[in-house]
Amino acid sequence: MKEVEEAKIEVDEEGILIKADTIGSLEALANELRKAGVKIKKAEVGDITKKDVIEVASYKQSNPLYGAIVGFNVKVLPEAQKEIDKYKIKVFLNNIIYKLVEDFTEWVKKEEERMKYEEFEKLIKPAIVRILPDCIFRQKDPAICGVEVLYGTLKVGYPLMREDGMQLGYVREIKDRGENVREAKAGKAVSIAIEGKVMLKRHVDEGDLMYVAVPEEHVRELYHKYMDRLRNDEKEALLRYMELMQKLTNNIFWGR
Fold this sequence. Notes:
Residues 125-211 form the Elongation factor Tu-type domain. The protein is an alpha+beta fold and 256 residues long. It has helices spanning 2-6, 23-35, 50-62, 78-87, 97-122, 216-225, 232-249; strands at 16-20, 40-45, 68-72, 90-94, 127-138, 143-155, 159-161, 167-176, 179-181, 183-185, 189-195, 209-212. Strands 5-6-11-8-7-12 form a 6-stranded antiparallel β-barrel. Strands 2-1-3-4 form a 4-stranded parallel β-sheet. Helix 2 links the parallel strand 1 (16-20) and strand 2 (40-45). 29% of the residues are buried. Residues 251-256 have low confidence and may be disordered.
């Protein structure tokens, strides 16, 4: 019990929980993890308990990457396994320290990439479309027309605006050769249904451009964090949209 008490080390304000069978192996594990840049909230001797898992679940609330336990030469107690499943805690067990560090850091990389991808996918991406000649099929409720996607990717649910900033509505439906699709990329000619106040031939007409109305915070995220994930035509759509908004608002700083 004295050894267990002595082994409780608060090394960081936030991080993961690590466990080992002896004080010596715990220190060795902590040192290797620190070399890999891993933050450690708590280090203890002993098997993984229910209390450990509940504690790590609280770490996970502040950062999903802290929802992990790294254990050297220890086991998970039966009562702890239920909590691991309940809170979806990631547990790494091994009796080789370098393998534990390797497995954990690899998991972190994959999780970071997954979270970035999910965050990126939630953002509204820019797109510019042109209304095709002789392709206005319905003027309103909903407005239906054929468009060519010039830059970016047009998706169902995206809001559309005119070049002067007038909000036209949102894309209710996209059809490619009669088939419903969720999106249309640059170079595609598709028909779209626009739900909103737009009246074709009055608010916009054949040959006019329509822009996806990207929220300002999404523009900043795309420009500062995700430019490397955008295709060249998506980058062009973003830059053109930023230039357009600068002209319209005159004094809004878009972070360029």
